[in-house]
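To close the section, here is one more complete example, presented without commentary so you can practise reading it yourself. The ligand is hypoxanthine.
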Amino acid sequence: MTASLDAFASALPKAELHLHIEGTLEPELLFELASRNKVKLRFKSVSEIRAAYAFDGLQSFLDIYYEGAGVLRTERDFHDLAWAYFQRVAPMNVKHSEIFFDPQTHTSRCVPYEAVISGLTQACRRAEKELGISSKLILCFLRHLDEESALKTLAEALPFDGIAGVGLDSSELDRPPSLFTNVFAKARAAGLRCVAHAGEEGPPSYITEALDLLKVERIDHGVRCLEDPELVKRLAAEQTALTVCPLSNHKLRVFDTLEDHNLKHLLAAGVLASVHSDDPAYFGGYVDANYRDTARALGLTRAELVTLARNSFLSSWLGGAEKTRHLAAIDRLVAS
Ligand code: HPA
Ligand code: ZN
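Output:
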């Protein structure tokens, strides 16, 4: 990969569609918030925290990720977290971001839902105004908890503005999408759009369940679809978006090495795949590193990078005119 291809990847306008805001909590901010909120940490230094970021699968990551989120207490904390993320990705040419947040992680610690949503909403408005980045918020249900808890969370959220859709995240194994059919039906009835993590560690049948039972528009991760050729044909025919996170998949051992990642096969099969960063503070890279490192590891061409950036906007929940505007900016970059 040449330096110019690196620069090209960075210059491409991008939409980020798979980003957990709690996963952008850098150790420096974690310490600052712990001190502000008088939360005692078991870590003494930033380097000690970073050394703990060695994961052998999704669960080992989630354990430390939920621990880190314990420093988030007030509306201001949620604003500061999201504002730090927006400032960080503005130079990477992220033009639009659809951001996950996990209210149950916070309400279970007696942080009011209102503090979470209003802190995040303030940062989103500020990013639009000061950085020109548009955004949407996606409330994720934690699938290691039961549907009752998800229903309660939805009921708590609905009186407030600010969310465009719902998602499903956390521990996937033995927690199939079918367990959440009712809460997704209620969310759809309330006019919310739906996505779900599926086929990250879980089997391809979870992707099918998410599509058929939860009626999601996008699959987050979805990389295990390649184990089922009929499913791949369906995803390609229906142009179902997969939001793929290569550095996350490598760090959580979904693939042993980045070179083993199946992104190129997904693209070759005609699947609407795009590249995102998942939990960048924990996985060693924001969206530009995901593009760059994956391009290097898989030998992606300039045309494939353009396809990934185009797919990110095509898979987004932006309106038609906005999509056209961003796709035209990509075309101008390609022509320049
Ligand atoms: N998978 C499931 N849940 C998550 C993830 C993920 O990659 N990141 C944060 N919560
Ligand atoms: Zn995720």
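Once you have examined the tokens, check your reading against these statements. The two ends are 20 Å apart (CA to CA). The longest strand covers residues 134-142.
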